[in-house]
Amino acid sequence: MARHIAYIGLGSNLGDRYSNLARAVDRIRQLPSTLVEGQSGNYLTAPMGPRDQPDFLNSVIGISTEMSPGGLLDALKEIEKSLGREETYRWGPRLIDIDILLYDEIVIDEEDLKIPHPRMHEREFALEPLCEIAPDALHPAMGKTVEQILRELRNK
Predict the structure, then answer these.
(1) Which residue in 17, 23, 27, 94 is the catalytic one?
(2) Residue pLDDT, tens place only, 1-56
(3) Is 154 a catalytic residue?
């Protein structure tokens, strides 16, 4: 079976944020035919949207997996639910948020699955930890590396 490289963004701003991220990574390690190949440090960032909520703790992991993009998304959503995530409102507080940022160098634009993450290029809190572990990872829709995108975002 073919192995794929994916980068996963994690965020938490409720409860014990460090523990929430660690528990999510532990659950991802338990996914079938999946290895965590790299993990960024943790980054404390202000929330997007409503500011009347705690700051987020964000990180990124790199994995190799045999799971399909859709299978991986389903598994990550199940991990969120098992860790106690409840749906609130757009950009609202959350116990855990897990997003596929990149998967190989493919572009998927389906209703429930969008890869690369559609707003990743606008979010320093995703790009900075991703750049820490994979600066040369290519954003296939933009034809630029993560490092280039982060530099351009900071120069705006």
Answers:
(1) 94
(2) 789 999 999 999 999 999 999 999 999 999 999 999 999 999 999 988 777 889 99
(3) no
Tell me the CATH number at 104.
3.30.70.560
Determine whether 97 is an active site residue: yes
| 4 contacts 64 by C-beta, under 8 angstroms | yes
Choose, from 17, 27, 85, 123, the residue flagged as catalytic.
85
Asked, for residue 126, whether it belongs to a domain, the answer is: no
How many domains, the chain?
1
Count of C-beta atoms within a 10 Å radius of residue 147: 15
Question: Of 52, 97, 123, 154, which residue is the catalytic one?
Answer: 97
Q: Which domain holds residue 94?
A: 4-120
Quick check: is 35 in a domain?
yes
Q: pTM (2 decimals)?
A: 0.94
φ/ψ of residue 122, rounded to 5:
-105, 0
Check 99, 119, 136, 154 and give the catalytic one: 99
The whole-number pLDDT of residue 92 equals 63
